[in-house]
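Example (one chain per record):
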Amino acid sequence: MRKRLARGSLLALLIFGLNLSLPGAEELKPVPLPPPQAEGGLPLMHALRQRHTTREIQPTKLPPQILANLLWAGFGINRPGTGHRTAPSAMNSQEVDIYVALAEGLYVYEAKANRLNPVLAGDFRPRISGQAYVKDAPAVLIFVADLPRLAKAKPEQRLFYAAIDTGCISQNIYLYCASEGLATVVFAVDGAPLAAALKLKPDQKAILAQAVGYPAAENPKPETRVVK
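Predicted structure:
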């Protein structure tokens, strides 16, 4: 009897140890990002010519530097000391947060600290949309507006302003992807279920989402970058 109990205890310890090593079993930690590379890239008019939507995306993981550049281009701080951002926001409210869904977990981008703050462990991408490109894309961005930050706007106009500001951020990301030869597609989200999954407050609204990754092999390659 004692031998059976000992074997059972040993087996339980082994299973417990294995569970600790499984992806997502450990608590997510903040992820510091490398400093964004704000030099180089395509000339603006060239990037505008290259800007397009691509739904065929490889699951290949994006390197930390590309992810840092992407988020900085979208809504990073471009004037140190002032906190002003790469995209405009109504009355400088900066009410839009970028949630980043990666294979290992869901994070929110903190521009000032240039890092990803953990929200949920595990792969959140399938909960955003059932579209194949959302599950394949290595990074899916969710734009969430915290409406009380638009304190200077009338309450009935806050969602309108947040939608405009989100569009500006999304276009910045489109242009960065065009410059770097990345694939991206913006898509609508089902607000209420997504808000529940994200555990958003009533005054937080999921506005839009955008999948980003490398284009699938069958897609034509982008033009060679020419820096002038």
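Caption: Strands lie at 31-32, 77-79, 84-85, 96-102, 105-110, 115-121, 139-146, 183-187, 204-213.
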